[in-house]
Amino acid sequence: MDHFLYRDGQLYAEDVPVADIAAAVGSPVYIYSTATLLRHFRLFDEALAWGPHLVCYAMKAASNQAILKTLAEAGAGMDVVSGGEYARAKAAGVPGERIVFSGIGKTRDEIRAALIGGVRQFNIESEPEMRVISEIASSMGVIAPVTVRVNPDVDAKTHAKIATGKSENKFGIPIAKARSVYAEAAALPGLKVVGIDVHIGSQLTDLEPFAMAYRKVAELTEVLRADGHEISRLDLGGGLGIPYTRSNEAPPLPVEYGAVVQRELGHLGCEIEIEPGRLIAGNAGILVSKVIYVKEGEGRNFLILDAAMNDLIRPAMYDAHHDIVPVIEAKAGAEQAPFDIVGPVCESGDTFAKGRMMPALGEGDLVAFRSAGAYGSVMASEYNTRALVPEVLVRDDQFAVIRPRPSFEDMINRDSLPEWL
């Protein structure tokens, strides 16, 4: 469920007409719903209410300060994968004890900054990283709380580019090596082993891969405890998918996911950490764009928009589907025709949809890309010297620009010419 609904023939974001936002801010523009963000966070929080837990928002999905602060004030922790994300989480007021530091390539500077600022735990991805964290923590005279990310070799049955739990993926340590790695971690100075980490992929629409991975984690927990390790936390990552179409087929609900976690791991008495990103932010955001031209081609027609692949790269990168709807609702029974929906960038990959059935639209009409809140704005670029899309947050009948559109002058002035030019 989201809070982008038609009312009196036009699309609203909560209680604000989308067309009013576009008129005030221009297009393209990302629009987020506070009510949807909070609803999705609370669904996860309630799904794990049977035991001690922390829902850490995977902020790589959408990392604007306003989104982070909204979720942090509701009680969310943060899952970060870079020094920049760590700094953003801290700037949003998230205390270190609610920040989990993930990512396979943590640098020495990032590790040091997190130890200075405070961190709930590092999710270790490799033996070399573990030794570096030990070295830095020891040199600073502090203890770094750590988990080891194990790779359970489970097929998440998702897109190859967002699967992370197979043996051929770059993530984590093979689960068969876990005992020896944990033994080394326990022997290294400056480290305190607090749990186990696992994450098998993103946009999962079937609970069975989760269950398979968690059974392996449960077995490993018992083995490691028998070896003398104190395993008090289980970090289960994220990955639960969202519906990108309005069909009757929907991914599992957070409450169903929570039941799987309880069934497979509840008997261990561990604190559960999960790191959803897409399910919290995905359907909480839309990208609004304007039709520049309607072009008649050879055997096909095109809707050319002012949004492009640099603004929303998911269709070009992942062949991802987004429902695209007119901001002014088509009349019931209105005739539709197939269109290729494209942007203005001079690449054939700048295509959002092919043969998509759409009602009649003309120059200046607005359309909305649904389910664009996750991996939309955060993956945008200034390719073709196109300005980054502004972001707007709506709450009830109010809206605020939470990232302005830069001017061309702002963009060009970031360049610095050498003295010989």
Number of strands: 21
Average pLDDT taken over every residue? 93
Shape: globular
Oligomer: single chain
Structural class: alpha/beta
Cα-to-Cα separation, first versus last residue: 55 Å
Number of helices: 12
Q: Which percent range describes the beta-strand content?
A: 25-35%
CATH homologous superfamily classification of the largest domain: Alanine racemase
Helix content: 25-40%
Task: Assign the CATH class of the largest domain.
Answer: Alpha Beta
* Structural Rg: 23 Å
Question: Under CATH, the topology of the largest domain is which?
Answer: TIM Barrel
Low-confidence stretches: 158-167
User: Can you tell me the CATH architecture of the largest domain?
Assistant: Alpha-Beta Barrel
Main β-sheet: number of strands, strand sense, barrel status?
Answer: 9 strands, mixed
Count of discrete structural domains = 2
How would you characterize the overall build of this protein?
- This protein has 421 residues and is of the alpha/beta class.
- The chain has 2 domains: 4-31 and 282-412, Lyase, Ornithine Decarboxylase, Chain A, domain 1 (Beta Barrel); 34-280, Alpha-Beta Barrel (TIM Barrel), CATH 3.20.20.
- Helix content is 28%, strand content 25%.
- The chain has 12 helices and 21 strands.
- It has helices at residues 18-25, 34-47, 65-73, 83-91, 108-117, 127-140, 178-187, 208-226, 254-265, 278-281, 314-318, 408-412, and strands spanning 4-7, 10-13, 16-17, 29-33, 53-58, 77-80, 99-101, 121-124, 144-151, 173-174, 191-197, 233-235, 271-274, 285-296, 301-305, 324-326, 336-342, 351-359, 366-369, 391-395, 398-403.
- Strands 4, 14, 15, 16, 17, 18, 19, 20 and 21 form a 9-stranded mixed sheet that branches.
- Strand 8 (121-124), helix 6 and strand 9 form a beta-alpha-beta unit.
- Helix 5 packs across helix 6 (127-140) and helix 8 packs parallel to helix 9 (254-265).
- The longest helix is centred in the middle third of the chain and has 19 residues, at 208-226.
- It starts with a strand and ends in a 9-residue tail after the last helix.
- Mean pLDDT is 93; it is low at 158-167.
